[in-house]
Amino acid sequence: MELKRVVVTGFGAFTPIGKNAADYWENLVKGESGAAPITLFDTTNFKTKFACEIKNFNPLDYLEKKESKKMDRNTQFGMIAAREAVAHSRIIEDNVDKNRVGVIWGSGIGGLETFEHEVLEWAKSEIPRFNPFFIPKMIADITPGHISIEYGFHGPNYTTVSACASSANALIDSKMLIQLGKADVIVCGGSEAAVTASGVGGFNAMMALSTRNDDPKTASRPFDKDRDGFVLGEGAGSIVLEEYEHAKKRGATIYAELKGGGMSADAYHMTAPHPEGLGAYLVMKNCLEDAEVTADEVDHINMHGTSTPLGDIAESNAISRLLGDHAFDIQINSTKSMTGHLLGAAGVIEAIAALGTIIHGIVPPTINHFTDDENIDKRLNFTFNTAVKKNVDIAMSNTFGFGGHNACVLFKKI
Question: Structural domain tally of the chain?
């Protein structure tokens, strides 16, 4: 059976540094940081007092009051990003067969704000009186349900949950379903809204977050010697994937081909990466094999690069092992230095950033680099602090999650 080709015909982003895809890209290239003191709850007693929030967010600027009340913040973000992607793709205007359009979404946690609020309210009174929308607002799979209802999409519809790899897995699942002919179009992506007391408190308890409260904007510093953990972010991204011939037939703008998708497991530890970067190496190797692309054809890698002491070293070593000397000839980066870590939404917004390098011929920087880490090969070009103009034909994007889940996608200019 000959597999069908899969292309990108639309995308949307709702991030801490841009509330649409164009603004997101512009601020990535500028090197803007989205980190600032947390406004969503009182951080007085918390170790970390900052995050990359969606600033000045009012759901009623985007959603009807009645529908917004039925959605957790996580789903509200997802709806906004999906609407932009769908509009960008013009699949509604072109009257595609909605029975052949699916929605596959990723979220690592789901409706954490709703869960936290409802349980705390119950604990105050001990009377089991809950909002009737508690469960449908909280469950991680509800966002693709809302998207499909809005547009009448009857194709495959579900959520992938693999911690921080969730939305990258959504892209890979979507690609495979289209390749197999199970759908013509899939609106895929991910969203996350974990900047809550329990979210920040939980990650603090794991000692995963940066505590650089005196200088939030430089706290996310991937590959820097003085990095001290990741910065929590929130938001959503969406990509419309489409079968190549279907897209051509309707005259769609094609931005790139999703050529490869790789998956692997560290099989090592719940939260720490394999010390030799074994899972990271395997996932990139699997992605290249799926794409039928050789290592020396890769022009750019958007790294997972969370700004954690162990993770950055393991991934850097994996890239050196995979690409050999070619690793020193390409631009690599971590856009988490600007957006923070969007957990389940990280994969898709970073995939959009990788797409941007192909579309615009620019590689955004890894900001906040001050001191080299002697444990990381200095010959690797992390695009520190300043964007670089570069023709990119093939771009990869890595996303790794707690539990040892690894996902990698590869886009090719078309």
Answer: 2
